Amino acid sequence: MGISVPIIVYTHTDMKDVWPMFFGQFKKYIGDTKVYVAVNKESDELSMYNQIVYDDSKQYTERWNEILELIQEEFFIFLHEDMILFSNPNFQLLEKYIGYVTGNLAESIKLILAGDRFEEWSVDKTLVTNEYAKFSIQPTITTKKVFKELVNNLPPMTIWKFEEAIISAGRDFMVRVGDEKKRGMYHYDSSVFPYIATAINKGKWNYSEYQTELDSLFAEYQINPFERGIV
Questions:
Q1: Nearest one of 114, 109, 111, 120 to 146, comparing CA atoms
Q2: In the prediction, which pLDDT does 185 show?
Q3: Which of 11, 20, 29, 39 has the fewest CB atoms within 10 Å, counting from its CB?
Q4: Residue pair 19/27 in contact by the 8 Å Cβ criterion
Q5: Helix, strand, or coil here: 216?
Q6: In the chain, how many domains are there?
Q7: Inter-axis angle of helices 144-152 and 60-69, to 10 degrees?
Q8: Is 32 a member of any domain?
């Protein structure tokens, strides 16, 4: 089963050792979905995807400006390569949420829950808002127009500064189905798009939060975690 909008994966060749796991899980769980891969250098390992090469010398926001110019579709899901699926997505709910974005009822829908004191959306009680509901670098359903306006209205900046600088337009939501389990201090596991958030922390495998999931994936993809290191 696939998803009706494309997925844009942002990555870098520094993360090549993560690709077998990330794309292996993608192939397993996403199925027949169009995938763009934004990367700093074209790679044979990514030849089965639509590769978009960005200028590595530019800041994160400038890179996205380049990437978005080459995306054909107006609507998409985007994420980074260390956000690795570990179970089946809920395609029915994903398509419903995509419909809210394509129907201009929402500007972005983040596929993870964070924070507390959630305010339910009157249109759909499984979508909520709080201070964390704004557009972010987590897996998100959004539009090219919304993303371009964000990167164009801010000065060139790093990924972390970009996320801090974003202000919600008031039509940004997070998914809360109701069965999410808390993971760490600030976020919950997504039951709609079950992924590791995130697998790499400060350049090392995020073993302290995702030991069970990563142990299974290390074995499946024959990865020695100590080559990159663990935290």
A1: 109
A2: 84
A3: 20
A4: no
A5: helix
A6: 1
A7: 140
A8: yes
Q: Are strands 108-110 and 172-175 parallel, antiparallel or unpaired?
A: parallel
Residue 1: the pLDDT is: 76
Quick one: pLDDT at residue 57? 98
Beta carbons of 225 and 214 less than 8 angstroms apart: yes
Buried residues in 122-159 as b, exposed as e (16+ CB within 10 A): eebebbbbbebbbbbbbbbbbbbebbeebbeeeeebee
Question: Which residues of the chain, if any, have pLDDT below 50?
Answer: none
Q: Is the whole-model pTM more than 0.90?
A: yes
* Upstream peptide bond of 198 is cis (omega within 30 degrees of 0): yes
pLDDT at position 128 is 98
Q: What's the CATH code of the domain at 116?
A: 3.90.550
Structural domain includes residue 2: no
By residue range, what is the domain housing residue 207?
A: 7-223
In a domain, 25, yes or no: yes
231 domain residue, yes or no: no
